[in-house]
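[scheduler] slot 2 assigned
[scheduler] job type: sequence-to-structure, two independent chains
[scheduler] chain ordering preserved from manifest
[runner] begin chain α
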Amino acid sequence: MSGPGGDLTYAELADRAGRAARALADEDIGRGALVAVAQADPVALLVAVLAADLVGATPLLCDHAWSEERRAQVMAAVPVAARFDDPLPEADGPAVEHRPAPDDLTWACFSSGSTGRPRAVVRGRASWTASFAHLDALTGIGADDVVLIPGPLVSSLYGFAAVHALAAGATAVVPGRWSPGGLAEPLRRATAVHVVPHRLPAVLDALGTAGGPLRTAVVGGAALDVAARTRAAAAGVRVVSYYGATELSFVAVDADGAGLRPFPGVEIDVRVPPGQVLGEVWVRSPWLCDGYLAGATGPLRQDDGGWMTVGDLAEPHRRGEVLRLRGRGDGAIQTGGATVVPEDVEEVLRKVPGVDDVVVVGTPHPYLGAVVTAVVEGAVEGAAAGDGVSRAALEAAARAELDPAQRPRRWYAAESLPRTPAGKPARGLLATRLAAGDDPGLRRLT
């Protein structure tokens, strides 16, 4: 393993985790206990996770960047046996004996998706570990690989990537945060990388500059642009993209660019209400979570048949077909009697030259209910050629490819979009800021 403080062999990692587990056991922290861990160093965080697992406790991963006020607010809603912000203490003594079981609750992390308050999702051991072999087969990741995981491990996407790399016997490179300027060095030896879609171009930029043996990019968290996959292929990098959620884990995977199909072991049922063209994606699989801690509410729903949904929308789906996602149901915009799926609009606007990324939300309107509003990263009002993108160019693209109801009526520019810890645009936060009308980081395009 390689982190900000240097390299660590598997033997050294096991020794540190074992000694930390001994210290936890000495404090009577054991099976069933919930242990909050928020170490800034990703290696120290993984040691804490492994130590908690060794004593049968459940590690609850918290964001070390939270303010003390925010942390206290979150912790008040989730009872924990202990909280560790610094590296776990280590102790000598006999090895901790805990016989792991598939249904042990071995991972909990916070998820807010793009909207709402963070809530803690908890899952059993097998809901992750039993899927490792399937990901091995899809990606080819094995003991000879060096896997770059350039994001915070408190995100389930990156956390899963780290523990999967360790289970595969690979070298996990965990810088702990996203740093485009810091990609060149690890890419000189990385053979695989886990990223969210909007960060794949930066990886390819760094690869083109520094070179390296990168052969596989595992991309999850949002829809992947076709152009990004094509560019990766030209660089000799195979892309394996997937759709899932913190609550659902893997749902569908696209390993060859032909479209999303169910991940091994997953059943998909798109339930379309009468008279509607889109339906909710319901999933039944061994990879589902156990729910939210402390009775928290959220988008996760479950029926009596063991099916779960987080409200994502898709076109009607039949077995053997490609799954065509259309966004999150709670993000749909109701405007003047029409329903607009933000992802449909974003897909069009991202193709406009000069647009780095874009988020579409609904903002209140006294007569229409809401109007479609676009916040564009990289836009420059009245930009000259080569200096960015103008509102006129954005509107021209909207007129050419979108129905009238889908076209944004309000346009904003942002130097940098706010994002979740996983790197996805924070749609709900943007909507809140727009409603407040006092965010200096958003500039109205007129």
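[runner] end chain α
[runner] begin chain β
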Amino acid sequence: MRPDPRPPTWRAWPLLCLLLPFAAGAVTPADYAYRYALATPGRSAAWRVELTPAVYAASRPDAHLRDLVVVNAQGQEVPFAPLSEAPPRPQSFRLQATLLPLPASSASNGTGVRVQRNSNGDIVIEQPSTPAASGRPSQWLLDAHRRVELDRIEIDPLALPADSRFHLSAQSSDDLQSWVERGQGADIVSVRRGVEAVEQHTITLSGGAPARYYRLSLRADDVAPWDSAQTPRVELRGSYTDPLAGRIAARHWLTLTATPASTASGGGVNYDYALPAALPVEAARIDLAGDNTVARFSLLDRDGGSERQLAMITAVRLGANEGEDPSTAVATVRVQHLRLHTDTPLSQPPSLRVAWRPDVFVFLAEGDGPYSLLAGSYAARRGDYPVDAALERLRPAGADWQPPLATLGAVSDAAGASALMAPKTPYDWTRSLLWLVLIGGALMVAGMAWSLLRQARRGDDQR
């Protein structure tokens, strides 16, 4: 076999070319601008990371947070992805309420009695103009004031006289028209003999969906110890879920100060505000400076070189102790520069408060710590990791467990701000070389033509 005449360096080039794609995908600190230390006390297979304004400022807006990675102590990238939003947790519910008696005529065929809701959802019982037939009520209504899933209704023992025994069943409704049975009901008992007493005043509910309104009904031929003028006290116990409660609780509020007002080209006044970074804003509130003032504003997004309306907000202030206006929700958008435009002349610029909710990521503790978050890159992007599948294996069945929180620590430069900039394009020598070749070729052709022309002239002279 003939030895390969090529030098060792030349023979290594094919192997280097095969490894080049893998080397290009490897994460190095030189690919990112900044490094944030992550504190992970204790032991866990996964950790949560909540982004701070500083991380948002380090990330390029056009990267959509994909220029964020987590590396271990060996500098290796670990699985890292946005954390899916957890379903809302049930909140315990407990309310003191009164039983609203339904007139006896409504219990049979509803003659002359109307039960409806007002604009706030409160129960309104309209009596007929003519007096209803006398008699004790057999049904009572309850308003929980929100959609809840009741577990039980406890009647105040003081509302039960001695030697009381009757059976109550419970139904639920969301519109006071259609009712759903909620369990078998219960016998209400109050028997006292001296110091001895037997009492049962709890109605257990089961089945059915959450509802706002509940109704208690007597069993046929039973009589309750309350007339139509009495409203016994009861306690409602159960739970409810509020999808917005968790989001609102996780919000961070920022108070922004306006730059000097400027006159808009089409009339009116503009007030400009700047956030510390492009944050995911989802609500806003305007605080007017002067008392007894009202104004209508357009909230505008000024990022990207053009204005985009996010919301119309009317702000009112009637005295120093009037309280603040409710916040106005906006479609969640990452924005750093906001503008308020109004046609109402104001003596002082308004204060703008914005609510933002940090994005939450999760990473798997692959390799040894300490772990670091690398942020900000012009070209490097994080891969897609199916972290949710790993969390399902870690999460106990039926539990709403979430990984513990890893807090962001000190920041240091990785590659520095240069990693956020487009790399300088090297000088393209091939174009110059091509022009040299073309010019050289043209000169050679011209030289050859000139030589042939001179030879032709010599031949003509010799003749």
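[runner] end chain β
[qc] chain β: The chain has three domains: 24-87+360-420, 91-240, 251-356.
[scheduler] slot 2 released
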